[in-house]
Description:
Structural class: alpha+beta
Number of domains: 1
Largest sheet: 5 strands, antiparallel
Order of helices and strands: HEEEEEEE
Strand order of the largest sheet: 6-5-4-1-7
Strand content: 35-45%
Amino acid sequence: MSPSAAGSFDTFQRRQQAAASDPADMAQVTGSNVNLRSGPSTGNAVVGQAREGERVEWISEPAPGWALIRHPRYDGDMYMSSNYLQRISD
């Protein structure tokens, strides 16, 4: 592994550890019928849909434009476009 690739991987690991230690934020879905996916890409399977106005737990942002979330109507973690989410402050 090249030094630059190793540095990128280390940065990625640090971000993931920081995200794991931070409590999840709440967010509101701003788009209607937004696909929930098994991975952070439109190439991944659709595993559900979020409706406009629903609230979800925003766990992390594993890739640009994607959010890892927990939805109250589904089991487990899933991904959705972060373009359709607005963070909710307490």
